[in-house]
Design brief:
This protein has about 100 residues and is α+β, with helices and mostly antiparallel strands. The chain has one domain: Alpha-Beta Plaits, CATH 3.30.70. It contains 2 helices and 4 strands. It has helices at about 15-30, 85-95; strands at about 5-15, 35-40, 75-80, 100. The chain has a 4-stranded antiparallel sheet with strand order 2-3-1-4, with helices on one face. The radius of gyration is 15 Å and the shape is elongated. The protein starts with 5 loop residues before the first strand and ends with a strand.
């Protein structure tokens, strides 16, 4: 009998770029419905991550103040239990700092 449970998996990322890629991979590679994927600050404050990357990084060496780096970004996704290994692989490939499920 197949495991039909729905599980929520959460992963924290340091950069703004990684959650964007995680959402793209979950939707395009695994066919997860976009409304089942959530992205939010892992801290109480709004954040662009805890480390600059991509468009958040200044190319002139000056620090930016329009993209606050005050904490990680959390991605959570509601999936069928059988998708746990694939989701964990995507999160791991993109450098997730912490992954948990319930």
């Amino acid at each position: 009998m197949a495991d039909e449970r729905t599980v929520t998996i959460r992963a924290n990322f340091e950069t703004r770029e990684a959650p964007d890629l995680a959402v793209e991979h979950l939707v395009q590679q695994l066919g997860i419905s976009r409304p089942d994927v959530f992205v939010r600050s892992a801290a109480a404050e709004n954040t662009s991550g805890s480390r600059a990357s991509g468009g958040d990084a200044s190319h002139q060496g000056a620090s930016r103040d329009d993209a606050p780096l005050v904490g990680d970004i959390e991605v959570s996704v509601d999936i069928a239990a059988k998708q746990i290994p694939a989701v964990n692989r995507i999160f791991g490939d993109l450098g997730a700092m912490r992954v948990s499920s319930r």
